[in-house]
Structures are given as structure tokens and as C-alpha cells.
Amino acid sequence: MHIKLVDIIGYLAACGTTVSFLPQAIKTIQTKNTAGISLAMYGLFTAGTLCWLIYGILSGSLPVAIANAITLVFASIILLYKIRYK
Length: 86
Hints:
With 86 residues, the chain is mainly α. It has a single domain (5-84), classed as Monooxygenase, CATH 1.20.1280.290.
């Protein structure tokens, strides 16, 4: 199996952007405090993440698909908490 530099960069970017959501998701789940989170922003962000996931799948880009699948889970959790715990 031969991994290209561009794939390595893609996986590093995917890890960095995906892991960046963990602190917010964990804090939101623990505190249920969503006062500082914009519902409109997270709604749009979650929809955009879903589109990136679909794009990654359709284009065959594994780093894009994996990163956005994981990020979609985190963003959806935060969005659901924002809606539930206004």
C-alpha cells in the first residue's frame, strides 16, 4: 500500500479539525449550557458538514468522508443540545 503525501496531509487535517470539536462537545454534554452557541450557526454548520460528508463519499475522498462523518456526530450533538436546552 502506497500512501501519497497529499493523503497524509488530508488525514492530518481531518484529525486536527475533527478533534477540535471534542472539547466543545464534551463541555456541552457535561454542562448542558448552550447559551454561548448560535443556533443559526450550528444549524448551518451541521448542514454544511453533512454536505462535505456526502461530497467525500461521492468523490471517493476518504479523509474528507471520515472527518466529516465524525464531525457531523459532534456537531449534531451540540445542535441537539442547543435546541433541547435553550
